[in-house]
Structure formats: structure tokens, C-alpha cells
Amino acid sequence: MDQTIYVGMSGPVRKTYTALDDERTMAQEIDRVITTCVQSRLPVYIYVPTDVVAIPLDAFRLATPLDLAVRNKNRAIEDLVVKKILQCIKDSKRPAILVDVLADRHGGKDLVRKLVDLTHFPTYGTCLSKGVIEENSPYFNGIYSGKVSFPGIREAVETSDLVLNIGPLLSDSNTGGFTRNISEDRLVSGRITQAYIWQRIGRFLKPNDIVFVECGTAGFGMEDVTLPSNTSFHTQIFFSSIGFSVGAAFGAAIAARELNSPGRVILIVGDGSLQMTVQEISSFIRYGFKNICIFVINNDGYSIERAIHGQHQGYNDINVLWDYQRMLEFFGANSTTEIKGQSVRCTDIETVDKVYEILMDKLDYPWRLSKQLELSSGHSPETKPKL
After folding, report:
1. Neighbours of 233 (CB within 10 A)
2. One-character DSSP codes across 78-113
3. Which CATH class is domain 194-373?
4. Is 194-373 the same fold as 75-174?
5. Cβ contacts of 105-113, under 8 Å, gap ≥ 24
6. Domain-wise residue ranges, the chain
7. 3-state secondary structure 140-195
């Protein structure tokens, strides 16, 4: 089989590639591709034939750090753009800053924060850029997602006479279904509901936490949470890859340990998504991570899929007999391991300090999800006929 076909498949989306087929240039090529990846913030491809994996290479290149600095190659144009922006700011009366995820992806988070502190402009984020701006800043006003926004947020952004939109990523899930207004309907009751749980989880978070949120109902619910200072927030709503958060949180735990990060790794995942990649829980225990908290949203299956299509169809059901209270023990967490199993099952979150399994109704949806479906399909999940 011609393995190089995968190189060709990556062509439309990659910035560069290399095939490690020459022992004399392998190390140099790896450095080149990694440098291009970091500087461009674009995908790259390294083809590694199986018969070269064990070839020893001289390690002398490791003594010199890679030059990963991003340099402006057209300063004259940049100066003109900056002058134009400054003039627009001077002429505006109601300016605003809208920060999106590509500001972070291109290494501009610190610069954007300085801009906000310098200008004092009302500042907004998107669902993908949560955590880029300090959400306890006096200038941060909330998340702008078109009609899928808190009342007042959309009006405030869209009536500004100047919007500095930094790092935009205009995908459907990041723009309220390409709408870029709805009043929030909050429900407070004895049961744990979508309208209640997310602000409660928000109070559980601490500065420097590293938060991974599954792209199901949790992804929509967490948009309403105000993050503490220096919180790192990650979700996969761009590709909607369910199960991604579990393995990604494990990778983050490894990185946090290596970097001596002071924050906890927080995983918020639904029961359906967890069953896709649950084996990575074993990896947390194998490596003895202690500063981890896992929230399992147990709503009897794929609630986000029920909202989209097939509320009562069997294909949105899963095996609900899993005992998540014994999950850590099953994977080896016990009195002889570094990580101790600590599990709580609850229907009333106020009775516990830590929550691992949260029981909610399978047809209870975050208001943002209901609104986005209403905009895209013409009706909300609650009014859809049984299939």
C-alpha cells in the first residue's frame, strides 16, 4: 500500500509537511516543520515510516532552542492599519471589543488583555474564546453569540459604533447559528436542572483551573459561567467530537504536572460522551494524578442529540446501568494507589462539596441549545413532535 496517500490527503489543510526518509536531514526537517506549525498556527504533517522510528540521531540540535518568534514581514502595511484603527477609535463614541478564539491561537492573549486594560472599552467574548479575557475584569460584559446571547448583550454589541473584532472564527456554533436575542428563562427548584447547575459549577472553579468541557449540553451550559482569574477553558464544539474532552484532559494533566501548574484539571463530561473514551480515566490513575475533578452529567444518554432529532428514539439511548460511583475503583484507585477514589452521586448539589455524578432529566436542555435549534430548525426541542 502506498502510505504517501495520506500526505496527499492532508494537502488542502496543511501549511507544510515532511517525509522522514533521509537520515541525514530527519532532525532538521522535524525542527523546520515544528517551527512552521508554531509560527503559522496552522496544521502540518510529518510522515514517519515505521522502519525509521528506531534510527538513532545525533542529539546536538537539542542544545539550541528553536526560534519560534513570529515576525512581521510587512511593517509598512501594519503601520497603515494601526493608524486607521486609531483614527476609528478617536472618531467613535460607543466602542467595544469583541475577542474571539484566534486571538489566543495566534499567541495574542496577553496583548489583548493589555488592550482591554488600556482602553477600558466594554469587552465581550465568544463561546470559543472563553478564558482569553479575564472574566472578573470590570470591562468584561459577557459572551456575544448573536441571538444566542443574554438579553442586552446582543443589543450592546450591535449598537456600538465601533467593534474591534480580534481573532474572529465565524463558525455556526460560535455565532449562534450565524445569527449573531433571547430572554433567559431560569428555573430554580429542588432538582438539579440545566438552568441551575452551571452557575453552581462556576462557584466551584478556582483561579488557574484547567477546564475541559464536553461539546454536548455541557458545552452550551458552561457559556453562562463566569470563569475565575487565569482559568484555561477548552471545548470541542467546532468539530463536535464527543469523547474528546476525556483524553484531552488527561493530556492537559500531563502538561500541568511538567509545567508545575498550580491549577486543578477539571473535566465536565456527559455520560454518553464518557462512554466513548472512558478508558482514559485509567490513565489518570496509572500516572497518579491527584489534582483532578471529574463531573459526570448523567442524563441517560445523548441529550443534545435528543434535542436535535429523536427525543424518544432508541438510538439516543445508552447503557444506563453503569455505576459511575465505582468507576475510579474499577480502574484501580484504592487505598494502595496515589490517587484515591472519591465519588459522590447527588440530585441536590447543595448537599456536597464535590460532585462527580450529577443526575438530570434527559429532556432538560440548556437554554442556549434550545434557542440555537429554534433558530436553525424553526422550533425548539420542547415543541418537537415525538418521532
Report:
1. 23
2. HHHHHHHHHHHHHH-SSEEEEE-THHHHTT-HHHHH
3. alpha beta
4. yes
5. 105/41, 105/167, 106/41, 106/70, 106/167, 107/41, 107/70, 108/166, 108/167, 112/166, 112/167
6. 3-63, 75-174, 194-373
7. EEEECECECCCCCHHHHHHCCCEEEEECCCCCCCCCCCCCCCCCCCCCCCCCCCHH
Tens of pLDDT along the chain (387 residues) come to 677 788 889 988 999 999 999 999 999 999 999 999 999 889 999 999 988 988 998 889 999 999 998 877 666 667 777 888 898 899 889 999 999 999 998 889 999 999 999 999 999 999 999 999 999 999 999 999 998 888 889 889 888 888 899 998 888 888 888 876 322 322 223 456 776 778 788 888 999 999 999 988 888 888 888 999 999 999 988 888 888 999 999 999 999 999 999 999 999 998 889 999 999 988 988 888 888 889 998 888 888 778 877 778 888 888 888 888 778 888 877 654 454 444 545 444 333 233 356 677 777 777 787 888 788 776 667 544 343
Q: What is the pTM of this model?
A: 0.61
Task: Report how far residue 188's alpha carbon sits from residue 345's, in angstroms, rounded to the nearest whole number.
Answer: 20
Regarding the domain with residue range 75-174, which homologous superfamily does it belong to in the CATH classification?
TPP-binding domain (3.40.50.1220)
10 Å CB burial of residue 290 (0-12, 13-18, 19+) is exposed
Within 13 A of 66's CA, how many CA atoms are on the CB side?
A: 15
For the record, the C-alpha cell of 254 comes out as 500531563
- Distance separating alpha carbons of residues 245 and 365, to the nearest angstrom: 20
Closest CA to 124 of 150, 106, 93: 150
